[in-house]
User: Which sequence fits this backbone?
């Protein structure tokens, strides 16, 4: 339960200092940490303090926190949903209202900064900008509702029927994560810097196929009659119903699949080595340079913690850590100290609580370096 007075005390300190210190979060619950961070990012700290000081919102507050307690997913913490809850607080204390609106449509030829926003390319080649905090509907050219957006999740409806495959393509920029629910109920968590191509409806009698570049965690709806295929470069992962993570960034030397639950077959189109069958707790890797495959037992948390807004490193080279920080914080890091590249670290960071500067300061306590931040550009010396 989120306690109003405890929250006010923390927010008053943040409003006074204008920064968030990690020490402030020691005695807060998970929901309270989420809410404080998002109120701060939204610039709503002062408004909340003023409103709750003069208004009696206890009843509304209980309704709001009850919603927080009951909207948690038992499988993974969907921390980005808190943006909606933070917005709900503002509605309660300012008596404002929301108007549902469809995503902004960008016509062919129109320039957009697609490295900063979530974009959806539809079958007619129109590109739509998706506001991760927005709500609305996607409609077909005939006006039928094919999908609904609720905050950072886009859900395609099973009621909309087609007799041919029609693809949409969703792109997530650096610094953001997003959720996609396909028409069969399959839920996909998409990491920063990921593009996925998928049918808006699966067709009876056909396999369910999606194409991904980047990283996604899949919770596949069971359907033995229609196997689910995830294609990435030369690698295909085939499942019937399971939970697994696929990482296939272009700059990475390997395509990796980590199985959480169920069973998957991992194959590639470059060799005739046959399928790699994964069991829970194992990782299948395909090396792009050597065209070789490998299977190993792993700590699942290292590969799935990003879903809950965390970065976990275990004996991870500094060079690899910088790449992951660039994606998650949407920054460019230039390392002028190559001696650090192969230094290994064990660390855990909460992206929604700790800024990139907090992370750099923490790592500097272990590795000796200086850094300079200029906007989104970071120089390590």
Assistant:
């Amino acid at each position: 339960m989120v306690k109003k007075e405890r929250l006010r005390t923390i927010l008053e300190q943040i409003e006074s200092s204008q920064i968030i210190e990690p020490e402030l979060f020691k005695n807060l619950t998970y929901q309270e940490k989420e809410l404080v961070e998002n109120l701060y990012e939204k610039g709503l700290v002062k408004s909340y303090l003023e409103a709750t000081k003069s208004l009696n919102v206890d009843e509304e507050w209980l309704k709001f926190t009850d919603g927080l307690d009951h909207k948690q997913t038992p499988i993974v913490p969907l921390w980005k949903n808190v943006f909606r809850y933070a917005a709900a607080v503002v509605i309660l204390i300012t008596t404002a209202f929301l108007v549902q609106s469809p995503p902004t449509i960008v016509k062919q030829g129109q320039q957009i900064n697609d490295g900063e926003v979530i974009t959806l390319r539809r079958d007619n080649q129109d590109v739509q900008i998706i506001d991760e905090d927005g709500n609305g509907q996607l409609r077909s050219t005939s006006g039928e509702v094919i999908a609904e957006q609720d905050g950072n999740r886009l859900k395609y409806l099973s009621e909309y029927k087609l007799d041919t495959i029609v693809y949409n393509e969703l792109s997530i920029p650096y610094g953001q994560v997003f959720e996609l629910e396909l028409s069969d109920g399959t839920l996909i968590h998409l990491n920063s810097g990921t593009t996925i191509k998928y049918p808006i409806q699966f067709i009876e009698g056909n396999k369910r196929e999606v194409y991904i570049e980047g990283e996604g965690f899949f919770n596949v709806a069971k359907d033995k009659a229609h196997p689910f295929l995830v294609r990435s470069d030369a690698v295909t992962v085939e499942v019937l119903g399971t939970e697994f993570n696929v990482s296939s960034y272009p700059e990475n030397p390997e395509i990796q699949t980590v199985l959480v639950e169920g069973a998957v077959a991992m194959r590639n189109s470059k060799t005739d080595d046959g399928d790699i069958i994964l069991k829970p707790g194992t990782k299948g890797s395909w090396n792009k340079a050597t065209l070789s495959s490998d299977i190993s037992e792993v700590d699942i948390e290292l590969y799935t913690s990003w879903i809950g807004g965390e970065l976990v490193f275990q004996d991870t080279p500094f060079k690899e850590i910088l790449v992951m920080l660039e994606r998650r914080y949407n920054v460019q890091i230039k390392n002028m100290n190559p001696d650090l590249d192969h230094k290994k670290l064990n660390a855990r960071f909460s992206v929604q609580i700790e800024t990139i500067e907090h992370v750099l300061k923490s790592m500097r306590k272990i590795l000796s370096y200086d850094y300079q931040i200029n906007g989104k550009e970071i120089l390590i010396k």
